[in-house]
Amino acid sequence: YFYPNNDFSDESSFAKYPRGYKKEDKMVWRRENVDIVVKMLRDTIKSVKPFMKFGISPYAVWRNLRDDPKGSDTKSYGYTNYDHLHADILKWMESGWLDYILPQLYFNIGYPAADFTVLAKWWRDYSAGTPVYGGLGTYRLDANSKIEAWRTPLEIKNQALMLREMDNYQGVCYFNAKNLKDNKLGVNSVFKELYSSPAIVPQLRGFETTPPAVPEGAVMSIKGETVNFKWKGEALPKGNSSIEKCNSERAYYYLVYKFKKGETPNFSKGESILTLTGETGFSIEAVQAKEYDFYVSALDRLYNESNAVKFNQVK
Fold first, then answer.
1. How far apart are CA 60 and CA 221, in angstroms?
2. What is the CATH number that goes with domain 216-314?
3. Which terminus of the chain is more exposed, N or C, with fewer CB under 10 A?
4. Is the peptide bond before 176 cis (omega within 30 degrees of 0)?
């Protein structure tokens, strides 16, 4: 993970590949090493799979304000990205090398040395237009925590709600999945409240925004207690598929909506999403279909969405 810290045995590498740097500039040399890797990694990924989103999840503190006027008002003096891990995250964002950034904001609101609110605002203000996902630390939840805030999942809820109100934040990620699986301190009740409706992945800057073609031949038929939906399209590739095919502007998923009969369709309402599928058909129980009209749209692998078309009922 970048460099483990300043105390790292790389004297032989520095002597062999100094690239013109003097001994007193070794920290700069290290940061340039990481810069080279990050830039090379991005360029390589984009040359093979331009649809791939390349991002990094760094420690929460780039630098402290004490050491840099651009730093955050924090006191993480023994551990920062720039001074200890030799990762100049700010440069990467300003250079446009990242499709997104996911800072590990694993501190509670009001924590004296590294306040969640202070850090969240710093990443918002210094992201240089790079979309931000906030990393929230569900692993910190503990009924016996020395920090009172972590004894209840309300801390996670308050953090997520705070980030929803901040520009540049595209969403949040939780570390780690085991806490959700184990429903740590009942945290899943918070998630049910925060995410009561389905949603699709938001678009990121710098990617193709042309949607795939509108699905054709969308029909529904009732057979007994079952309603069958089908449309024309290319089903999701099974197993290994060629890079060229994966890169093509084709429908990769389909999104099916349902609206009450007579209701004006509003496709921005997540609660109207019935299903997301990579197939070109699916079925539901007939009792679920009587009072609804149904529509289907196509999504490419970047979640650019076509216009939706209404299903016609056939016998």
1. 53
2. 2.60.40.10
3. C
4. yes
